[in-house]
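quick one: WQD bound model?
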Amino acid sequence: MKILVTGGLGFIGSHTVVELQNQGFEVLIIDDLSNSSEKVIDGIVAITGKKPLFEKIDLKEKSKVENFFKKHTDVKGVIHFAASKAVGESVEKPLLYYENNIGTLVYLLKELAKKNKASFIFSSSCTVYGQADKMPITEDAPVKTAESPYGNTKQMGEEIIADTCKVVPALNAIALRYFNPMGAHPSAEIGELPIGVPQNLVPFITQTGVGMREQLSVFGDDYPTIDGTCVRDYIHVVDLAKAHVIALKRLLEDKNDANYEVFNLGTGKGSTVLEVVKSFEKVSGKKLNYKIVDKRAGDIIEAYANTEKANKVLGWKAESTLDEAMKSAWDWEVKIRS
Ligand code: WQD
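yep, here:
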């Protein structure tokens, strides 16, 4: 069965391609290579022995999207990762984010609406909750006004999909709200490609550990948390990838309860920045050079998932601990620097 993975050469996308292939799906990848590399295909093949079909397409080009679906009429499902995702950049370049994250989604949905049945998995984010009032965060926590155009594109994306599913009976969709993805495939054949200075905590830690970065700046230590640093729910990217395949199969097998569903994907456990640093020091045996600096604008204090819905309804649970995820991130960093 043919599945299209947009952004399939990206961090979460490539790990999901591996899990789809492990489950016997035939995978087609569309990627514009703006934040990935074609070499990722070699890593996927090294793990599964199967080479996914890859087409370099910019989804902003409507005719290219139309032609792709004309050529591949037997695509049964789409997992849509392709989007710009840097919070800070989205504040500086809102139109780039609205065009790339929303325009492309509309083109994809228009193609799927032509099919007699289509299953769609959308890459969303816990960012839609903003600073939630209650921990752990459930799926019915209110969506708050986004703090960035990036977060807004995730909120708008969910609404666009929900509205479309209401009037296109053939379309069934699931939005997966990720908490903080981290780590790499245990084979160290694929992982988070380091392009530019990492905005996210974990790649910055591993790059500091391997000597690429001088020092980690910890953005604030006077938050109302156990050690004053922010709390997040760090989930292993392989656990996240497996959840995508389970969600897709739920739709392909018509097991969904509604034509649009939402699930949080996290471990259900919060970790502070300093706990993540300690995890790195434990798994690497290295002391991390860091300093406490001012808070980063837009950061929320804490976010960790209530995972009951995904556990009970999807039958999925994150298996990796923070240390196991950090070990995989470190092994990947060491491998790509060797
Ligand atoms: C985590 C914690 C920082 C870097 C964002 C997006 C989210 C998703 C994941 C795309 C925070 C602290 C970080 C550093 C630090 N992205 N930190 N020093 O902001 O929770 O989530 O990335 O889908 O949608 O919102 O992740 O890794 O940037 O930060 O102290 O050099 O680490 O303050 O508390 P975040 P993050």
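The mean pLDDT is 97.
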